[in-house]
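Methods — Computational structure assignment.
A single polypeptide chain was analysed. Its primary sequence is given first, followed by the predicted tertiary structure written as structure tokens.
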Amino acid sequence: MSVEKIFIKESIKENELEKFLAKKFEKAGYSHTEIRATPLGTRIIVYAHKPGLVIGRSGRRIEEITKEIKEKFGFENPMIDVKEVENPFLDAHIVARRIARAIERGIHYKKVANYYLDKVMEAGAIGVQIKIGGKLAGVQRSRFQKFRRGFVAFSGEYARTCVDFAQTQAMIKPGIVGIEVRIMKKAPPELMVEK
């Protein structure tokens, strides 16, 4: 098997694991997963707002999930770590999923987007952009709308290091609605203004 095919196969496996864990830990405020290969096995770091719901009583839930991951995905000796997301409003993955759930419940997308713009800025972000696209508000044609507050870098080093980015989808009757969230948590040191 060629190197490219191995990388593609691994990426598909990691993506399926991400979807599996997102479904399992939805109520725990699941954010994202980091997968690292170590000499002892595969280390899976799960980021969630409520780590207690991920771990379960006496760690039983973690043990069950570890067995399931080993059987389903074929990871060698998976070790799951859980890290807490202290402020869910500064995590783009959690904000995007909450917006998707609100839209699926029938709340108007403008109301949801403006609510989360306020909450993210109150949490201490430098800037936030929410982009929602699809068949919105009963319109026949697909369109998208951007909501923005503060400063958000879109390219270069700052976009990679300072911006938290997430995408998700909401399933509603007219079709799929795409949600994209960018949160700039801190300003680059070069842009800091001294008072």
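Note: The longest strand covers residues 163-172.
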